[in-house]
Amino acid sequence: MLQFKIKKRSISQTRSAAQYVTTADHDIKAIVFDVDGVLVDSLSAHLRMCRDLVEKFSLDIVVPSEEEFRQIVQSGASISPMRDFFMTIGFPPNIADLSLEIYAEKFIDEYLPNKYKYVDRMLGQLSKTGIVLGIVTSNTEVNIKGSLGKSIKHFNSHCIFCYDPRSSNFDKQEALNILCNRISIDPSLCLYVGDQPSDERAANQAGCVFLPVTYGWGFLALTNSSGAASTTQALAQMLLSVAPYGGGRRKLGKWAIWRNRRLKVRTHHPSDN
Question: The pTM is what?
């Protein structure tokens, strides 16, 4: 039976030195999201599907719990695109290929995940600031649109990059750079929100600012993770504080974020390296 060896790492070990970013330090023009584990609570749905597939194919595998899986991701295991997810769980290559076909056909209909609390409200409020909202994800367009539902309207349609099952390659760094080129901004003015070490690497290589969340798939919610968002409400507060505001002072809902209130958000910028 497959056994996992897990090496625990803290966010501070994966992020290098962090710095405080304010609207004065970095005039953020675009906020780009990974989706699974950031906007959509989909880990349990993916693991549930894996358990069903293990039973279907009579595999001698114990699918890890959510916490065990997060530790596996934190140790550096590759889990995207979805074939890598199945392989990391322990599926043989041929079964991983078959499972990928089943995943494409059935996941969104039979395992539809929920958005995290506050996501709809956060995206709606961010869209009012005039900042460009984008998506860079290793999941498919069908799954992303199905999971986000009506919230997809808040994103710039030219700034949505998803994994294409017909293509063997998907590079988040390249997608981030293409996105910045499309809206004519320097990558240093783009903030990427992710939940895995691979998201951070992509942001750093692209030259973007990175903001990790610890409630998702990969970064563990450890005591020294003050530079990360531990809840979607905390994420909303951080993002609204760096979003540009026009027309002077402006209150957006219960978080009361003001233009002249220079809140500091601890994020990782490539200049820290």
Answer: 0.80
